[in-house]
Design brief:
Elements lengths: L5 E6 L3 H15 L3 E6 L1 H9 L6 E5 H9 L9 E13 L10 H10 L3 E3 L3 H12 L3 H4 L3 E3 L6 H7 L4 E5 H4 L5 E6 L7 E8 L6 H11 L5 H6 L3 E2 L1
Parallel strand pairs: 1-2, 1-3, 5-6, 5-7
Antiparallel strand pairs: 3-9, 4-7, 4-8, 4-9, 4-10
Length: 230
């Protein structure tokens, strides 16, 4: 008898990683896994509104909110990866100095447009620009990518001159030059976690899959996708 597929939803930040880990788990355990990746805001909303999934993978903070709302089982959160923010420009464009906080600030001020996502990194960047006193100055030059739209794609198209997003979401985008991670002093690291949905009829099967995804066996895939094991 065919095992019941594990269904899930995740933010775009972990899409390429899950594209690698889900088939690997199926090959090992014989359990089909189908995880839909959408903008994190939309993913959280759909779980919050009661759409039925077995597992949800979002930022740790978003998972905790879903636990508090009763949509994810208490005690089921499993931290999978830590992901830092990197910076990109359009392929062939000049590469600004990003070696220090002051250098990044100067590059942001000089850019025709700056862009980030609606996810946790974007929220943190908006706060950073505010702390730098640039919120007003950047108001008309900031492009916030629509949920589910990669910042890198907008950089490649020329809509964003200086783009910020998780490294994992930039490394596979064609048409951009990746300038590297933010300096340590202002690096924004997001922990992405999974939780068993309250609507799941097979919580034990989900826990077995998450144990694999959090295990050392999954570490090489995480590193290939620009992330660190949590």
């Amino acid at each position: 008898m065919q095992p019941t597929p594990i269904t899930g939803i995740s933010s775009m930040a972990t899409r390429t990683l899950l594209d690698e880990l889900a088939p690997a788990y199926t090959a090992q355990a014989g359990v089909p896994v189908a995880i839909e990746s959408v903008g994190g805001v939309d993913a959280a909303r759909r779980v919050q509104e009661g759409e039925a999934f077995d597992v949800v993978i979002l930022s740790a903070e978003a998972i905790d909110k879903l636990i508090a709302a009763g949509r994810v089982l208490p005690g089921s959160r499993v931290d999978l990866v830590r992901s830092g923010v990197a910076v990109a420009v359009r392929a062939g464009a000049p590469h600004p100095d990003l070696s220090s906080e002051e250098a990044v600030k100067a590059a942001v001020r000089a850019a025709r447009t700056v862009g980030y996502s609606t996810g946790p990194s974007g929220v943190a960047l908006a706060k950073l620009f505010e702390r730098w006193g640039l919120a007003e100055e950047l108001k008309d030059r900031t492009v916030v990518a629509t949920p589910g739209v990669p910042v890198g794609a907008l950089v490649a198209r020329g809509d964003i001159e200086l783009g910020f997003q998780q490294l994992s979401e930039l490394i596979h985008v064609p048409g951009i030059d990746l300038l590297g991670a933010l300096p340590d002093a202002i690096q924004i690291t997001t922990t992405f976690s999974a939780g068993v949905c309250s609507s799941s009829a097979q919580p034990d099967a989900v826990r077995a899959m998450l144990a694999y995804m959090a295990s050392p066996a999954a570490a090489p895939a995480k590193q290939r996708q620009g992330m660190d094991p949590a």
